[in-house]
Amino acid sequence: MAEHGNKATPRSGDKHPKVDISLLQTFHLVARTGSFSAAARELAISYQSAANHVRRLEQIYGARLIEAEKGSRRITLTPQGKALHASLGDELETILSRLTVLLHDVRSVLRVGVPQALFHHFFPAILRAFRLEAPDIELAFFERDTTLEKMMMAGALDAAVSERSFSHPGITQHLLGSYRLALVYPQDWPVSAFAADHSPPELGFFRDRPFVTYEAGQMVRTSALDYLTRVNGAAPRVSTSASGSTSVTRLIEAGLGYGVVPEWCAGPAGGRTAKIVLDEMEPMKLWFAHSAFLGTNRFIRLLHRSCQTTITGEAQPGHGGD
Hints:
By secondary structure, the chain is of the alpha/beta class. The chain has helices spanning about 20-35, 35-45, 45-60, 80-105, 115-135, 150-155, 220-230, 245-255, 300-310; strands at about 65-70, 75, 110-115, 140-145, 160, 170-180, 180-185, 210-215, 235-240, 260, 275, 285-290.
Protein backbone atom coordinates (compact mmCIF):
# COMPACT_ATOMS: atom_id res chain seq x y z
CA MET A 1 0.00 0.00 0.00
CA ALA A 2 1.28 3.47 -0.85
CA GLU A 3 2.10 5.69 2.08
CA HIS A 4 0.17 8.90 2.65
CA GLY A 5 1.14 11.76 4.93
CA ASN A 6 3.52 11.35 7.82
CA LYS A 7 4.21 7.85 9.07
CA ALA A 8 3.09 7.00 12.58
CA THR A 9 5.90 6.06 14.91
CA PRO A 10 5.28 2.47 16.04
CA ARG A 11 5.89 1.40 19.57
CA SER A 12 9.33 0.07 20.37
CA GLY A 13 9.74 -3.47 19.07
CA ASP A 14 6.56 -3.32 16.90
CA LYS A 15 7.14 -3.63 13.18
CA HIS A 16 3.39 -3.42 12.53
CA PRO A 17 1.13 -1.64 15.04
CA LYS A 18 -1.73 -3.85 16.20
CA VAL A 19 -5.15 -2.67 15.00
CA ASP A 20 -8.42 -3.56 16.73
CA ILE A 21 -10.87 -4.70 14.05
CA SER A 22 -13.57 -2.59 15.72
CA LEU A 23 -11.64 0.53 14.71
CA LEU A 24 -11.67 -0.57 11.08
CA GLN A 25 -15.35 -1.48 11.28
CA THR A 26 -16.25 1.93 12.70
CA PHE A 27 -14.20 3.79 10.09
CA HIS A 28 -15.74 1.65 7.32
CA LEU A 29 -19.28 2.48 8.49
CA VAL A 30 -18.54 6.19 8.96
CA ALA A 31 -17.10 6.34 5.44
CA ARG A 32 -20.03 4.38 4.00
CA THR A 33 -22.83 6.28 5.77
CA GLY A 34 -21.20 9.70 5.72
CA SER A 35 -21.64 10.48 9.41
CA PHE A 36 -20.50 9.47 12.88
CA SER A 37 -24.08 9.38 14.18
CA ALA A 38 -25.31 6.91 11.51
CA ALA A 39 -22.34 4.62 12.15
CA ALA A 40 -22.86 4.86 15.89
CA ARG A 41 -26.53 3.85 15.55
CA GLU A 42 -25.64 0.84 13.41
CA LEU A 43 -22.98 -0.27 15.91
CA ALA A 44 -25.09 0.55 18.97
CA ILE A 45 -22.37 2.78 20.44
CA SER A 46 -22.27 6.47 21.32
CA TYR A 47 -21.39 9.24 18.88
CA GLN A 48 -18.29 10.02 20.93
CA SER A 49 -17.16 6.36 20.88
CA ALA A 50 -17.45 6.29 17.09
CA ALA A 51 -15.41 9.49 16.84
CA ASN A 52 -12.81 8.14 19.26
CA HIS A 53 -12.46 4.94 17.20
CA VAL A 54 -11.68 6.93 14.09
CA ARG A 55 -9.23 9.23 15.90
CA ARG A 56 -7.40 6.18 17.29
CA LEU A 57 -7.18 4.67 13.81
CA GLU A 58 -5.79 7.95 12.49
CA GLN A 59 -3.08 7.83 15.15
CA ILE A 60 -2.11 4.30 14.06
CA TYR A 61 -2.33 5.14 10.36
CA GLY A 62 -0.36 8.35 10.79
CA ALA A 63 -2.64 10.61 8.80
CA ARG A 64 -6.03 12.34 8.94
CA LEU A 65 -8.70 10.10 7.41
CA ILE A 66 -11.85 12.16 7.96
CA GLU A 67 -12.65 15.87 7.94
CA ALA A 68 -15.73 17.13 9.81
CA GLU A 69 -16.84 20.75 9.72
CA LYS A 70 -17.92 22.34 12.99
CA GLY A 71 -21.68 22.41 13.31
CA SER A 72 -22.15 19.83 10.57
CA ARG A 73 -23.02 16.18 11.10
CA ARG A 74 -21.67 15.21 7.68
CA ILE A 75 -18.09 14.17 7.12
CA THR A 76 -15.77 13.97 4.12
CA LEU A 77 -12.94 11.56 3.52
CA THR A 78 -9.46 12.91 3.01
CA PRO A 79 -7.46 11.45 0.10
CA GLN A 80 -5.81 9.11 2.62
CA GLY A 81 -9.22 8.14 3.97
CA LYS A 82 -10.52 7.39 0.48
CA ALA A 83 -7.50 5.21 -0.24
CA LEU A 84 -7.88 3.26 3.00
CA HIS A 85 -11.63 2.80 2.57
CA ALA A 86 -11.17 1.56 -0.99
CA SER A 87 -8.49 -0.94 0.06
CA LEU A 88 -10.59 -2.27 2.97
CA GLY A 89 -13.95 -2.43 1.22
CA ASP A 90 -14.74 -5.96 -0.03
CA GLU A 91 -12.26 -7.84 2.15
CA LEU A 92 -13.46 -6.20 5.39
CA GLU A 93 -17.11 -6.89 4.47
CA THR A 94 -16.25 -10.56 3.91
CA ILE A 95 -14.40 -10.87 7.22
CA LEU A 96 -17.13 -9.13 9.21
CA SER A 97 -19.83 -11.25 7.57
CA ARG A 98 -18.01 -14.48 8.37
CA LEU A 99 -17.29 -13.38 11.96
CA THR A 100 -20.99 -12.65 12.46
CA VAL A 101 -21.88 -16.16 11.35
CA LEU A 102 -19.19 -17.73 13.53
CA LEU A 103 -20.33 -15.84 16.61
CA HIS A 104 -23.93 -16.93 16.16
CA ASP A 105 -23.34 -20.58 15.25
CA VAL A 106 -23.43 -22.93 18.21
CA ARG A 107 -21.97 -25.74 16.14
CA SER A 108 -19.01 -25.52 13.79
CA VAL A 109 -20.23 -25.34 10.20
CA LEU A 110 -18.16 -25.28 7.01
CA ARG A 111 -20.08 -23.90 4.03
CA VAL A 112 -18.92 -25.28 0.69
CA GLY A 113 -20.05 -24.43 -2.83
CA VAL A 114 -19.68 -26.95 -5.65
CA PRO A 115 -21.34 -27.59 -9.04
CA GLN A 116 -23.79 -30.48 -9.07
CA ALA A 117 -21.76 -32.79 -11.34
CA LEU A 118 -18.62 -32.43 -9.22
CA PHE A 119 -20.60 -33.02 -6.05
CA HIS A 120 -22.23 -36.22 -7.33
CA HIS A 121 -19.02 -37.70 -8.71
CA PHE A 122 -16.32 -36.71 -6.21
CA PHE A 123 -17.82 -35.69 -2.89
CA PRO A 124 -19.03 -38.99 -1.43
CA ALA A 125 -15.37 -40.12 -1.41
CA ILE A 126 -14.15 -36.68 -0.30
CA LEU A 127 -16.60 -36.71 2.60
CA ARG A 128 -15.49 -40.17 3.71
CA ALA A 129 -11.88 -38.97 3.85
CA PHE A 130 -12.84 -35.74 5.66
CA ARG A 131 -14.99 -37.57 8.24
CA LEU A 132 -12.09 -39.78 9.32
CA GLU A 133 -10.45 -36.73 10.92
CA ALA A 134 -13.39 -34.39 11.51
CA PRO A 135 -16.48 -36.41 12.42
CA ASP A 136 -18.22 -33.58 14.29
CA ILE A 137 -17.95 -30.71 11.79
CA GLU A 138 -21.14 -29.96 9.88
CA LEU A 139 -20.61 -29.48 6.16
CA ALA A 140 -23.29 -27.39 4.44
CA PHE A 141 -23.14 -27.80 0.65
CA PHE A 142 -24.51 -25.35 -1.90
CA GLU A 143 -24.79 -26.86 -5.38
CA ARG A 144 -24.09 -23.79 -7.48
CA ASP A 145 -21.94 -22.80 -10.44
CA THR A 146 -22.19 -19.29 -11.82
CA THR A 147 -22.71 -17.60 -8.44
CA LEU A 148 -19.86 -19.20 -6.45
CA GLU A 149 -17.43 -16.26 -6.63
CA LYS A 150 -20.17 -13.78 -5.73
CA MET A 151 -21.22 -15.95 -2.76
CA MET A 152 -17.63 -16.15 -1.51
CA MET A 153 -17.16 -12.39 -1.84
CA ALA A 154 -20.35 -11.87 0.18
CA GLY A 155 -19.11 -14.16 2.95
CA ALA A 156 -21.83 -16.78 2.25
CA LEU A 157 -19.27 -19.55 1.55
CA ASP A 158 -16.06 -20.61 3.25
CA ALA A 159 -14.76 -22.77 0.41
CA ALA A 160 -15.65 -23.92 -3.09
CA VAL A 161 -14.56 -26.46 -5.69
CA SER A 162 -15.09 -25.21 -9.21
CA GLU A 163 -13.84 -25.05 -12.78
CA ARG A 164 -13.70 -21.28 -12.43
CA SER A 165 -10.61 -19.23 -11.70
CA PHE A 166 -11.67 -16.47 -9.33
CA SER A 167 -10.07 -13.03 -9.54
CA HIS A 168 -11.02 -11.53 -6.18
CA PRO A 169 -7.99 -10.80 -3.91
CA GLY A 170 -9.94 -12.01 -0.86
CA ILE A 171 -10.17 -15.52 -2.34
CA THR A 172 -7.24 -17.98 -2.45
CA GLN A 173 -7.26 -20.81 -5.01
CA HIS A 174 -5.23 -24.00 -5.45
CA LEU A 175 -5.24 -26.11 -8.62
CA LEU A 176 -6.57 -29.61 -7.91
CA GLY A 177 -6.29 -31.19 -11.35
CA SER A 178 -8.33 -31.50 -14.53
CA TYR A 179 -10.82 -33.77 -16.28
CA ARG A 180 -11.85 -34.55 -19.86
CA LEU A 181 -15.16 -33.82 -21.54
CA ALA A 182 -17.15 -36.22 -23.70
CA LEU A 183 -19.74 -35.72 -26.42
CA VAL A 184 -22.76 -37.87 -25.50
CA TYR A 185 -25.59 -38.82 -27.86
CA PRO A 186 -28.51 -41.31 -28.00
CA GLN A 187 -27.32 -44.86 -28.69
CA ASP A 188 -29.75 -45.30 -31.62
CA TRP A 189 -28.48 -42.31 -33.57
CA PRO A 190 -26.84 -43.46 -36.87
CA VAL A 191 -23.37 -42.15 -36.04
CA SER A 192 -20.64 -43.69 -38.23
CA ALA A 193 -18.56 -46.34 -36.48
CA PHE A 194 -15.02 -45.68 -35.31
CA ALA A 195 -12.39 -46.15 -37.97
CA ALA A 196 -9.91 -49.01 -37.92
CA ASP A 197 -7.32 -46.77 -36.27
CA HIS A 198 -9.86 -46.05 -33.50
CA SER A 199 -10.13 -42.37 -34.41
CA PRO A 200 -13.56 -40.91 -33.53
CA PRO A 201 -16.22 -40.24 -36.18
CA GLU A 202 -16.47 -36.78 -37.73
CA LEU A 203 -18.30 -34.38 -35.46
CA GLY A 204 -19.95 -32.79 -38.47
CA PHE A 205 -22.74 -35.36 -38.09
CA PHE A 206 -23.96 -33.38 -35.07
CA ARG A 207 -23.85 -29.93 -36.70
CA ASP A 208 -27.61 -29.63 -37.30
CA ARG A 209 -28.76 -31.88 -34.46
CA PRO A 210 -30.38 -30.42 -31.30
CA PHE A 211 -27.80 -29.58 -28.65
CA VAL A 212 -28.67 -30.09 -24.98
CA THR A 213 -26.42 -28.13 -22.64
CA TYR A 214 -26.01 -26.26 -19.37
CA GLU A 215 -27.50 -22.89 -18.52
CA ALA A 216 -25.76 -19.79 -19.83
CA GLY A 217 -22.57 -18.87 -18.01
CA GLN A 218 -21.55 -22.36 -16.92
CA MET A 219 -17.98 -23.27 -17.82
CA VAL A 220 -18.73 -26.58 -19.57
CA ARG A 221 -21.32 -24.92 -21.82
CA THR A 222 -18.96 -22.08 -22.76
CA SER A 223 -16.06 -24.43 -23.52
CA ALA A 224 -18.25 -26.86 -25.49
CA LEU A 225 -19.80 -24.12 -27.63
CA ASP A 226 -16.37 -22.67 -28.44
CA TYR A 227 -14.93 -26.07 -29.35
CA LEU A 228 -17.84 -27.31 -31.50
CA THR A 229 -18.10 -23.97 -33.31
CA ARG A 230 -14.41 -24.18 -34.15
CA VAL A 231 -14.36 -27.81 -35.40
CA ASN A 232 -17.72 -27.67 -37.23
CA GLY A 233 -17.50 -24.14 -38.59
CA ALA A 234 -20.89 -23.28 -37.10
CA ALA A 235 -22.35 -22.86 -33.64
CA PRO A 236 -24.35 -25.80 -32.25
CA ARG A 237 -28.15 -25.50 -32.37
CA VAL A 238 -28.98 -25.16 -28.69
CA SER A 239 -32.44 -26.66 -28.11
CA THR A 240 -32.55 -27.10 -24.31
CA SER A 241 -30.50 -25.94 -21.35
CA ALA A 242 -30.53 -27.15 -17.75
CA SER A 243 -28.64 -26.32 -14.58
CA GLY A 244 -27.09 -29.72 -13.79
CA SER A 245 -25.40 -32.70 -15.43
CA THR A 246 -28.09 -35.12 -14.22
CA SER A 247 -30.76 -33.14 -16.08
CA VAL A 248 -28.64 -32.78 -19.22
CA THR A 249 -27.84 -36.51 -19.42
CA ARG A 250 -31.46 -37.49 -18.74
CA LEU A 251 -32.60 -35.40 -21.71
CA ILE A 252 -29.96 -37.03 -23.92
CA GLU A 253 -31.02 -40.50 -22.74
CA ALA A 254 -34.58 -39.58 -23.77
CA GLY A 255 -33.36 -38.95 -27.33
CA LEU A 256 -33.87 -35.18 -27.23
CA GLY A 257 -30.40 -34.25 -28.45
CA TYR A 258 -26.68 -34.56 -27.87
CA GLY A 259 -24.49 -32.77 -25.39
CA VAL A 260 -21.01 -32.29 -23.96
CA VAL A 261 -20.60 -33.34 -20.33
CA PRO A 262 -17.80 -34.43 -17.98
CA GLU A 263 -16.58 -37.85 -19.08
CA TRP A 264 -17.78 -39.55 -15.89
CA CYS A 265 -21.38 -38.39 -16.56
CA ALA A 266 -21.54 -40.23 -19.89
CA GLY A 267 -22.95 -43.46 -18.44
CA PRO A 268 -21.79 -47.06 -18.88
CA ALA A 269 -21.11 -48.68 -22.24
CA GLY A 270 -24.16 -50.48 -23.64
CA GLY A 271 -26.62 -48.07 -22.05
CA ARG A 272 -29.02 -45.69 -23.75
CA THR A 273 -26.25 -43.31 -24.77
CA ALA A 274 -22.87 -43.50 -26.48
CA LYS A 275 -19.94 -41.17 -26.03
CA ILE A 276 -16.97 -39.71 -27.85
CA VAL A 277 -14.20 -38.57 -25.50
CA LEU A 278 -12.99 -35.20 -26.77
CA ASP A 279 -9.25 -35.73 -26.40
CA GLU A 280 -8.45 -32.74 -28.61
CA MET A 281 -10.47 -30.42 -26.40
CA GLU A 282 -8.63 -28.63 -23.59
CA PRO A 283 -9.35 -30.40 -20.27
CA MET A 284 -11.36 -28.56 -17.65
CA LYS A 285 -9.26 -27.42 -14.69
CA LEU A 286 -10.52 -27.90 -11.16
CA TRP A 287 -9.76 -25.38 -8.41
CA PHE A 288 -10.14 -25.45 -4.65
CA ALA A 289 -10.98 -21.97 -3.33
CA HIS A 290 -11.29 -20.59 0.17
CA SER A 291 -11.60 -17.20 1.84
CA ALA A 292 -8.07 -15.84 2.17
CA PHE A 293 -8.39 -15.21 5.91
CA LEU A 294 -9.26 -18.90 6.47
CA GLY A 295 -6.02 -20.14 4.94
CA THR A 296 -4.70 -21.51 8.23
CA ASN A 297 -8.00 -23.00 9.39
CA ARG A 298 -7.39 -26.70 10.06
CA PHE A 299 -10.74 -27.80 8.59
CA ILE A 300 -10.23 -25.80 5.40
CA ARG A 301 -6.80 -27.43 5.06
CA LEU A 302 -8.28 -30.86 5.75
CA LEU A 303 -11.00 -30.36 3.15
CA HIS A 304 -8.38 -29.24 0.63
CA ARG A 305 -6.29 -32.32 1.34
CA SER A 306 -9.34 -34.59 1.04
CA CYS A 307 -10.20 -33.03 -2.33
CA GLN A 308 -6.61 -33.30 -3.52
CA THR A 309 -6.19 -36.97 -2.62
CA THR A 310 -9.59 -37.96 -4.01
CA ILE A 311 -9.34 -36.06 -7.29
CA THR A 312 -5.66 -36.56 -8.13
CA GLY A 313 -4.60 -39.30 -5.73
CA GLU A 314 -1.93 -37.20 -4.05
CA ALA A 315 -1.77 -34.29 -1.64
CA GLN A 316 0.27 -31.21 -2.48
CA PRO A 317 2.71 -30.24 0.29
CA GLY A 318 2.03 -27.00 2.08
CA HIS A 319 -1.75 -27.02 1.68
CA GLY A 320 -2.93 -30.44 2.74
CA GLY A 321 -3.30 -30.22 6.51
CA ASP A 322 -1.63 -29.57 9.82
